[in-house]
Amino acid sequence: MLDNTSAKIAITLINNVGDVTIKKLIAYCGSFEEVFKAKKSCLIKIPGINDVIASNIIQSSNDVNLWKRVEEEIEFCNKNNIRVLSFSDDDFPYRLKHCEDAPATIFCLGNFNFNPKYSLSIVGTRSATNYGKLFCEKIINDFKNDGLNVTIVSGLAFGIDITAHKTAVENNLPNVAILAHGLDRIYPSEHKRIANILLNNGGLITEFLSKTKPEKPNFVKRNRIIAAMSDATLVVESKKDGGAMITANYAFEYNRDVLALPGRITDKQSEGPNFLIKSNKAFLVENSNDIYNALGWKIEKNKTKQQQSLMFDLTEDEKKIISIINENGDTPIDLIALKASLPISKVSVLLLNLEFNGIVNSHPGKVYSLNVKM
Predict the structure, then answer these.
(1) Higher-confidence residue: 329 or 250?
(2) Global pTM?
């Protein structure tokens, strides 16, 4: 039976008909259903629709196997509470809708706001370092501590992606994973548990039908959705030719802000972010305040009061460190350790805890400053 949902799915199965072409067809025909009812003589009058495409559309209208596949997909979606949305639907993600090459139809599973006030894509290498992971965790922790209900978007891959998803879950922040395959599977399979958990306050989105395998070209297509779903893309770590750089370039093309964590010039995993910064394609980001300033985000609760209350829960060693930084201003870790008469290994742990609580800021060269007024 030809209805809106079946037409949304069927049109994606027509040979030589991509997302941009689908949008042209809908603009001229009026709806997904009307595309399959149109005569060839009408179709070829549409700009960009040649004889081959028009013939493919007419043949698809009578293709028994195609419509059988559509019925299977609808049954799968109904059974698993999957929503089928098209760019013409009112609740289609508006950030995604504004991109010309955005998918005409997406499949969505979960419970989340498609159009949040704040949304940030976080991407990076699968071979993430502790430096990248800790930075990623701290940024998301700061969002929670600062009262910003930021929706985190990533690709569920190893490394930076899964670090972002897990940390968002731990902080009860909305959390969306964009997949490079159908919703009948999770890839990598090791992340199935976190994918199921994030459905409680987030979701999974894909443009691919069930039974679609996670093949290499699909990841490139997936990356454009990651970039399009957010106000900005943050590249934490990536080689210069890494997949995260593809996402960053999509974001740049979509006129979205690109943010990047700088790293040492000798580190392969920092090649990509350093290049983005050097070529003026990305804002240099060292902490959450850099993100707020770049994107114009406003902290929505009194951070100073929260920090003051935390001061009462500090250990004597932590209070000693704060006093040293307050007295000396921006202070390198070795000087802190010397004045506190503590080993650097212990001071590192204490500083990390203070940083997570928003009391100190870290700077290049292991220099620390206070983030509270004393």
Answers:
(1) 250
(2) 0.79
